[in-house]
Amino acid sequence: MANIVKQTKSGKPEILPDNKSHTNRFEIQSETSDRIYIVAQAKSSGEWQCGCPGWIYHRKCKHLRSLAPVLAQLAAGE
Question: What average pLDDT score do residues 36-58 get?
């Protein structure tokens, strides 16, 4: 799963600028199509969210499940 996250030369995901409602935003490539989704942490709740259909319709997705260790490091500022 790590190869679908856009990364910098340092090997860490490239963090996108914050918006009004989310922080720790980055792009993730779909494993099955050319689509790009945004994974981000909600400022109000701290909850990680994804722009994929699985998250939108079911509040569960394989991206967040697979990226849990990476997301924990990002939230901790490592």
Answer: 92
Average pLDDT (29-37) is: 84
Quick one: tokens of 61? 């997705």
Contacts of 69 (CB under 8 A, 6+ apart): none
User: What Rg do the C-alpha atoms of the chain give, in angstroms?
Assistant: 12
Distance of alpha carbon 28 from alpha carbon 63, whole angstroms: 8
Query: Can you tell me whether residue 15 is helix, strand or coil?
Result: coil
Q: What pLDDT does 4 receive? A: 45
Q: Do 14 and 29 contact (CB within 8 A), yes or no?
A: no
Helix (H) or strand (E) holding 64: helix 62-66
